[in-house]
């Protein structure tokens, strides 16, 4: 819990400081007098003066602001009017407002590049048994297939570095409604064949848990080997042992741990557990063992369970890049995430995607804690993802956001006159209402996820 809270506060602190520093730095470069640089809102906890700017750390760390000299807010001495924000040319005001979101996007590039330079341990793109009835099964994907490269129809083949990389490519293709070509070999890299994963048949604009089940890639390949057994459980009572490799059940070969788990869960007929004849390999010898799972209620459906850890750890690969390649990958991935975020927001607005995709502070905090526990490279990647989201969100043309101010400047540039005070007030009220609704939906989604409702 402490790790989660500290990681969340660190995430907020870094992203807010970078965002507001973007505004601050460009404002100073344009000759605008900056009165206050605030991190957070509410009661000041810490303040110090540097030159003509007061720096403040406040109690509520959910945002920040840079207060500039402006005739519309305070009286300005005649000798300082040329340093007021509202007196600056349109191009400079636009640059100052845009600098915050662009700083977040620039930070994401650097963080993703740093994550690539450090290197991350990820599961090798070797597939487990596809889920029954899924698109992966339809495409004739099999347990042990190693996905070497992927391509959209008519596109160039690109190497698939890991299971995470494969899922990212599948997600992008699914959201675009395009099939994905996969080039495969066996686990040892022998042979080659090409399959087409028909993601265009998914018939959904949301890549949520239900859609992922329909795609059916499942977990990476894991050998059907038993781990720790719970004393007194069905596996222990039957005589199974840690390290047993399962070769077959009821005479049917078991390809991987995913298939083994499915056979165990499905060992129920008319509400009664079914005895299974396992053929296992132990210390070089093969033996047959009869196993009867116990029943558990899984969301209203009876499932079999043997009280043992099923599956060996998947094979891992280190994904690491050099300085130039890492930076290029950081730039490319930031662009991809940004465009994907914009498309998802657009689809939510027109009803083509569910608002369940919105996440709030509770989800961010939980993800921050998990990424910190996995290591620095994973946390940097997570921080980059949130930084992209913050940058894109602030560029939306909503009053109260930077994008709203840029919308005003666009109007001013086209018409030659600024937006009237009356319309500014109306748009501000509308923008506040929209933001309150978005924050409420995001918080509701957070709570629903914690309660298992999403």
UniProtKB/TrEMBL annotation:
Location relative to the cell: Membrane
Transmembrane segments: 376-396, 432-451
Enzyme Commission identifier(s): 3.4.24.-
SUPFAM superfamilies: PDZ domain-like
Family affiliation: Belongs to the peptidase M50B family.
Top EC group: hydrolase
Entry's Gene Ontology cellular component terms: membrane
Topology in membrane: Multi-pass membrane protein
Record PROSITE patterns: PDZ
Domain of life: Bacteria
Keywords: Hydrolase, Membrane, Metal-binding, Metalloprotease, Protease, Transmembrane, Transmembrane helix, Zinc
Pfam families the record matches: PDZ_6, Peptidase_M50
Gene that encodes it: rseP
Domain PDZ positions: 201-254
Name of the protein described by the UniProt record: Zinc metalloprotease
Cofactor(s) recorded in Swiss-Prot or TrEMBL: Zn(2+)
Any GO MF annotation of the entry: metal ion binding
One BP annotation, GO: proteolysis
């Amino acid at each position: 819990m402490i790790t989660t809270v500290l990681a969340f506060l660190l995430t907020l602190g870094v992203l807010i400081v970078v965002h507001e520093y973007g505004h601050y730095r460009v404002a100073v470069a344009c000759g605008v007098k900056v009165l206050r640089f605030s991190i957070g809102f509410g009661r000041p906890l810490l303040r110090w003066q540097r030159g003509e700017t007061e720096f403040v750390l406040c109690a509520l760390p959910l945002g920040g602001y840079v207060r500039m000299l402006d005739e519309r807010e305070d009286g300005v001495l005649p000798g300082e009017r040329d340093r007021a924000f509202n007196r600056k040319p349109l191009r400079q005001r636009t640059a100052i407002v845009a600098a915050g979101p662009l700083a977040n996007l620039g930070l994401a590039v650097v963080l993703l590049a740093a994550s690539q330079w450090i290197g991350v341990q990820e599961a090798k793109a070797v597939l487990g048994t596809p889920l029954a009835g899924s698109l992966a099964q339809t495409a004739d994907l099999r347990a042990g297939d190693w996905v070497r490269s992927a391509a959209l129809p008519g596109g160039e083949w690109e190497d698939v570095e890991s299971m995470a990389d494969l899922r990212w490519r599948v997600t992008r293709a699914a959201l675009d409604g395009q099939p994905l070509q996969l080039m495969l070999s066996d686990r040892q890299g022998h042979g080659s064949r090409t399959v087409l994963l028909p993601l265009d048949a998914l018939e959904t604009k949301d890549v949520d848990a239900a859609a992922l089940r329909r795609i059916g890639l499942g977990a990476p390949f894991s050998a059907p080997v038993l781990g720790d057994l719970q004393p007194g459980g069905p596996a222990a009572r039957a005589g199974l042992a840690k390290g047993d490799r399962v070769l077959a059940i009821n005479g049917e070969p078991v390809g991987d741990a995913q298939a083994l788990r499915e056979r165990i869960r499905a060992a129920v007929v008319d509400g009664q557990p079914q005895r299974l004849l396992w053929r296992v390999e132990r210390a070089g010898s093969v033996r047959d063992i009869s196993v009867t799972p116990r029943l558990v209620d899984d969301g209203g459906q009876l499932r079999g369970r043997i009280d043992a850890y099923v599956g060996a750890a998947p094979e891992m690969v280190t994904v690491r890049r050099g300085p130039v390649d890492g930076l290029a990958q950081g730039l490319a991935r930031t662009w991809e995430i940004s465009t994907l975020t914009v498309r998802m927001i657009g689809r939510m607005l027109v009803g083509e995607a569910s608002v369940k995709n919105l996440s709030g502070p509770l989800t961010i905090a939980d993800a921050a804690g998990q990424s910190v526990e996995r290591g620095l490279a994973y946390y940097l990647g997570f921080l980059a993802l949130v930084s992209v989201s913050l940058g894109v969100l602030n560029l939306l043309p909503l009053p109260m956001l930077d994008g709203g101010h840029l919308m005003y400047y666009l109007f001013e540039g086209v018409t030659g006159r600024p937006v009237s005070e009356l319309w500014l007030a109306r748009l501000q009220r509308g923008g506040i209402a929209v933001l309150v609704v978005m924050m409420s939906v995001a918080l509701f989604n957070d709570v629903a996820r914690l309660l298992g409702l999403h």
